[in-house]
Specification:
181 residues
């Protein structure tokens, strides 16, 4: 990712922190939360690695093939999981987007995005629209609403508002990364 160094490092920090929190969520007592948290941790750490400024570390060309393979496999897993939960469709789009960006970065001059002409403009535009809409939707879901007085969450892994905030930050990160393509 090219652009202001401080913005790239902020994206790295936010994505890495999100990935770390998702690892904590994997300790939840709710099986579905554990399952989705693993995929979200992969996305957070993958986004953090991809966002490291090219001036600091330029990954070898084979790294982009590894990213594409890992996120291609994650997309297939999300496609399989989407049979039982619509939320996995978002994971499918996210994993596909990461694989798409890895392929585009491999094809980019110097092996890093930020150069005009990386990726297919139509695909990039559609993904950008999807994630911009997702950011608006998930941001609106963070607005506090009156609760029915249910039991408080018992641990860090069972806090739905923190999980939503993580998904929002990863969506914003995805928009930022797609804008550089």
């Amino acid at each position: 990712m090219h652009g202001p160094g401080s913005a790239a490092w902020l994206l790295v920090a936010v994505c890495a922190a999100t990935g770390a929190y998702c690892l904590l969520r994997m300790r939840s007592r709710v099986e579905e939360q554990r399952r989705t948290a693993g995929g979200e941790a992969l996305m957070g750490f993958g986004m953090a690695l991809m966002a490291i400024p090219a001036a600091v570390v330029t990954p070898p060309p084979a790294a982009w093939a590894v990213y594409a393979a890992v996120f291609g496999a994650a997309a297939l897993r999300a496609l399989w999981a989407a049979r039982s939960s619509a939320h996995h469709l978002h994971h499918l789009v996210g994993a596909f987007t990461m694989a798409y960006m890895a392929v585009a970065m491999a094809a980019a001059p110097g092996g890093h995005a930020g150069h005009k002409g990386t990726g297919a403009p139509l695909v990039t535009g559609l993904l950008l629209l999807y994630f911009a809409g997702y950011v608006l939707w998930s941001g609106a879901r963070l607005v506090p609403v009156a609760t029915a007085g249910g039991p408080p969450a018992s641990g860090w892994g069972d806090r739905p508002e923190l999980a939503r905030a993580c998904r929002l930050s990863m969506g914003i990160g995805m928009v930022a990364m797609l804008l550089t393509m």
